[in-house]
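note to self — DONT lose this again. spent like an hour looking for the file last time. sequence + predicted structure for the chain T wanted, 122 res
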Amino acid sequence: MDIFLDYLWAFLIGGSLCVIAQILIDKTKLTPARILVVYVCTGVVLTAIGVYEPLVNFAGSGATVPLTGFGYAIAKGVQKAVDEKGLLGALTGGLEATAGGISASICFGLIMSLIFSSKPKR
């Protein structure tokens, strides 16, 4: 029963983050790119003030998979690197922590561009 509750909370938390983004797309003039930036920055800020970590512990993938989770990963990487390397860690920690995800998105984007051809909007 515990595993079911874990999945349920991950679905509800992750789904609510996605619903908020969809409402922003539908009801405001914000572009998806701006909403992406807002979500990543929100993840960084909530991590910095200590609010996002308990949410990650509670919701698991429901909090780490959405874009706010990417901001969380950046902030945690910077915190760890600053503790280990000092001020230089503020410049390198975020990239080190998210390098796997960034590399995967570049590789998958390349593969998709080779498989599919784009069509102009009409």
